[in-house]
Amino acid sequence: MSSKNILYSVLDLAIVSKGNSLTETFKNTLKLAQKAEEFGYTRFWLAEHHNSDYIASSATSVLIGYVAEGTSTIRVGSGGIMLPNHSPLIIAEQFGTLGSLYPNRIDLGLGRAPGTDQETAKAIRSDHREAAFTFPEEVGEIQKYFSLNNVSSNVRATIAEGVDVPLYILGSSTDSAYLSSKKGLPYAFASHFATAKLFDALKIYHEEFTPSEYLQKPYTMAGVNIIIADTDEEAEKISTSLYKIIIGLLTGKRDYMQEPTEMTPELREMVKHPSVHQMLKYSFIGSKETVKKQISEFIDKTKIDELIAVTNIYDAQDRIKSYKLFSEIMKELNEENS
Fold first, then answer.
1. What is the value of pTM for the model shown?
2. How confident is the model at residue 126 (pLDDT cuts 50, 70, 90)?
């Protein structure tokens, strides 16, 4: 394993568990962020998704403000804002405002996908397909709006000019690797669900990276699904909620996150299905000892700078416990390799 210190962060979707209200869900998200701050996590990111029963992070910038207000040191941001859904000017104004309210704590992660189905994407923005193709230009527009050099422009995001809000490019394919390397921006790969192109994308990013005013050398982040409990058996049972979400996603049966059940032979067979297996390839589920070994191997292979843990668990306390155990793993690995 590398001798560098690996940072660890949270990606949260404000998961709505069956039987929980939206108010309870948002309170659980804030509680998780407060605990993540206590456990030594670097950042707490929220992802933009739409038209989903079990994801409540659709008004992402609003939720970022709520979490930032309820915490004091952890960085809070988007993982990510799906830029084709928005005007770059509006995003610059929103995040310029957040950056002024919570100085040196706000991150702006940008993605190209719509974060929803095609019909909903069209309802959000009628020209969403065209907007996806102009993603590189729109990232450039956001950079312009945050720059003090834009002061003399006819169109300005005055609230954003000179405000320190770092940009991150999110991706699930090699396109984003080329873009982030060309722009000299940090790169976060969505390997918690898009597993096929992880190593290709990281290779391209490192080989093509051009230093910029924002970043002198490559900086990579990777998403991983993490479910840790006291025993492998308990973690497997807790993970049945995640498996059902993924199976529902692939079969078009959207629903709230279900309470965990025993792992049945039928469910075990469904998990082995190539589509499910591929999507959850970088899922580390088990006791602390089991997951520590898996994480160490993942860091060795990817040489990433930061891990983003995605822990979709039905019970809020089980989720906090899993994040606590994961923070212990990361501290131990960093100490062992310092």
1. 0.95
2. low
